[in-house]
Amino acid sequence: MKYDQFKEGSRSALPIVLGFIPVGIAFGVLAVKSGLTGYEAVAMSLIVYAGASQFIAVDMLAAGAAALPIILTTFLVNLRHFLMSSTVSSHFKRKSLFETAVIAAGLTDESFSMAMSDPVKIIGRPSFLFGLQVTSQLAWVSGTALGAVFGSLVNSSSYGIPFALPALFICLLVLQLKNSRHVIVMLVAGVLSVVFKNLLPGNWNLVIAAVMASGAGIWLARNETDEVNQVEGVGPG
Amino acid sequence: MRISILLLIAGMAAVTFLPRFIPLALFTRWSLPEGTKRALHFMPTAIMAAIVFPILFSSPEGNISFEPRLILSAIPVFLFAIRAKNLWGSVVLGMLVYWALGFAFR
């Protein structure tokens, strides 16, 4: 564990913190409203740590759903992490299973895309990624606790709170756009994801759109071996 | 803490953790085939776009929708992000614009 890298990672998590605290509060409020105790809400944020699926879970709980359908839905919603984990893996050398598990447990849309916007920062520097992830998760858990305790005092749909994470996602997307091929991949993935959302359950729209658009990008870059080889080129793998 | 909720949380945690863990555990031990590695090059862009577009252009039921407050908040954030490449600023700007537009769209 390298403390200076951890601190750097922790600092770079601050925009995520800004998004996670209000949305965590919103989750805490909703969880308690749907019948969870404060401790249960916090435990869910700490142990599951996957925003979208947590919102869906407490929604289903409030509607009286059983555990198994909730778990199955969670699986479908979070399957996208499979793609992120695969992508991150090409920037890491072999680690102990414990270290791998720690990094994997904190992998979210936000930390993934923050890390991939500048992969140089994570190559061979797991402490940086760890700092980024721990700080983000701390914000999510604290937000949940705040919402669970002071829920009646805040209205989470007021102010700009509902747009905190969309704004973060938009900027994280922009940070990935390195050239015109990335812009095309963005448009293909975005349009397909919207079209498929109506047709497919869970988050399959997202998974299938991302895979198809990636394929389109590779096809566009088929004569530009330099670009797609960057992935192996930048690190020890 | 109720046992039933604890079991639910454990189940959710398991199905969330495994897709996060399995590729990292496998592919840092056995390298991915070159072709697959190359295919992952555009994955961050593709995933983020696949997340962002439905937020802006889909109704909660999954139909295509244009919610002016969302789209009008997204445009300045997008332009600002291109120019400034600043996450903090994007989040703050997005929240301010969305909040302000709340007075126009009620």
Walk me through what this model shows.
Chain A is globular. Helices cover 73% and strands 0% of the residues of chain A. Mean pLDDT of chain A is 87; it is low at 230-237. Chain A contains 13 helices and no strands. Chain B is mainly α and 106 residues long. Chain B folds into two domains: 1-41, no CATH class; 43-106, no CATH class. Chain B has helices at 3-27, 34-39, 43-57, 68-84, 87-104. In chain B, helix 4 packs antiparallel against helix 5. The N and C termini of chain B lie far apart (40 Å). Classes of the chains: A mainly alpha (237), B mainly alpha (106). At the A-B interface, helix 2, helix 3, helix 4, helix 5 and helix 6 of A face helix 1, helix 2, helix 3, helix 4 and helix 5 of B.
Coarse morphology of chain B: extended
**Total number of distinct structural domains of chain B:** 2
Report the order of strands and helices of chain A. HHHHHHHHHHHHH
Number of distinct beta strands of chain B? 0
Q: Pairing-aware structural class of the strands and helices of chain B?
A: mainly alpha
Major beta sheet of chain B, specifics?
none
Sheet bearing the most strands of chain A, described?
none
- Beta-strand proportion of chain B: under 5%
Q: How big a fraction of the residues of chain A is strand?
A: under 5%
Write the layout of secondary structure elements.
The complex is a heterodimer of chains A (237) and B (106).
Chain A: H1 3-12, H2 14-33, H3 38-47, H4 51-62, H5 67-78, H6 80-89, H7 97-105, H8 109-116, H9 126-150, H10 164-176, H11 180-197, H12 204-220, H13 225-233
Chain B: H1 3-27, H2 34-39, H3 43-57, H4 68-84, H5 87-104
Task: Please supply descriptive tags for the structure shown above.
heterodimer, A: 237 residues, mainly alpha, 2 domains, 73% helix, globular, B: 106 residues
